[in-house]
Design brief:
It contains ten helices and 14 strands. By secondary structure, the protein is of the alpha/beta class. Helix 7 runs antiparallel to helix 8 and helix 8 runs antiparallel to helix 9 (about 280-305). The two termini are about 35 Å apart.
Length: about 325
């Protein structure tokens, strides 16, 4: 039976001394006897010296370059041997007894490979946080959404998502995964750099017949956007590009129809940005589509190597449900 000592809490850091100073104490306080690691992505600030001088119980893994979230974790986790991995953002405050419900859920079902806790907003703790909320799903065109958050509409936490349930994807802000499964899936796709890599990982896990679950009895608070702001066009580019990569790689059937429809919907989103006088975001989506064209051969080659499984989508089109039917809750 798994115990808290079998968990490695791994925090990826890049020039994040201030975040570590603010949030690491809560992690140390509430991790019981789990081992805490900070994987440093070749920071140029004094993060590593700060950790060495102030948090001697934390193990530091030094990556030789900043390969983003995907490569950063892939490199660091080669050195981690604990059976359970918790990939934790550096801008998360954890709560008392947050690990026990997670451990119990893993122990109850060996096919459960990935788990996400309840993620609430650090700045407004009665509301869910954008990046993950109460667990993720995906529509037939590859658009992700969450229980507790659909596009920019975020729900108040009134206990509506307090149970444990199967979801499609878990947020990379706080993602628990069996070490053996992470390695069996070859980790994150490093071409993503950052954003959507956890959705791709969970989709590949689903296609390999693993389960991803949400555990509402465990709660963390996430700042969100501490590394790359939601209003940054680079984030828009990475989100749209990586989401397209994920759809093409993993969808079970109707690849051409789904991809073309998705790109048309993206085009509408791009025009909306243009109307709003946000040309950088318009260009970010065009650039994302260009990246799919230039990488299509490689992405299709990867697709051929991956298993497929049907019935992944909770919604036929979350865009239609949200913008046309005005459905704002899960």
């Amino acid at each position: 039976m798994l115990q808290s000592k079998d968990i490695a809490v791994v925090i990826l850091n890049w020039n994040g001394k201030t975040l570590l100073e603010t949030f690491l104490p809560s992690v140390i306080k509430h991790t019981e006897d789990a081992q805490i690691y900070v994987a440093d992505n070749a920071s140029t600030d004094d993060s590593v010296a700060f950790l060495t001088n102030h948090f001697s119980t934390v193990k530091v893994i030094k990556n030789t370059k900043n390969g983003g979230y995907a490569k950063g974790y892939n490199d660091a986790l080669k050195e981690v041997k604990e059976p359970l991995l918790c990939l934790l953002n550096s801008d998360i405050e954890v709560t008392a007894h947050w690990l026990q419900p997670i451990i119990e859920t893993f122990n109850a079902d060996e096919t459960t490979a990935i788990i996400q806790p309840k993620i609430l907003d650090y700045k407004n703790k009665s509301y869910f946080e954008y990046a993950g909320a109460a667990g993720g799903f995906i529509d037939t065109y590859g658009y992700p959404y969450c229980r507790g958050r659909i596009f920019d509409t975020i729900e108040k936490d009134i206990g509506q998502y307090n149970t444990t349930t199967t979801i499609f994807w878990a947020s990379g802000a706080c993602l628990f995964i069996r070490n053996s499964v992470f390695k069996a899936l070859d980790g994150f796709d490093e071409s993503y750099f950052a954003h959507m890599e956890e959705i791709d990982l969970c989709w590949r896990a689903f296609n390999a017949n693993y389960k991803t679950k949400y555990v509402g009895a465990s709660t963390v608070y996430h700042v969100g956007g501490a590394t790359l702001s939601k209003t940054n066009p680079k984030k828009t580019y990475l989100n749209f590009r990586n989401s397209l990569f994920t759809l093409v790689k993993n969808t079970d059937k109707h690849l051409f129809t789904r991809t073309v429809t998705r790109m048309l919907l993206d085009g509408i989103a791009a025009l909306r940005f243009l109307i709003q006088l946000k040309p950088k975001y318009f260009l970010a989506i065009l650039k994302a589509h260009g990246a799919l064209y230039s990488n299509l051969g490689k992405v299709l080659k990867t697709r051929k190597q991956l298993p497929k499984r049907s019935n992944y989508q909770e919604s036929k089109s979350i865009v239609w449900a949200y913008f046309i039917k005005r459905r704002t809750k899960f």
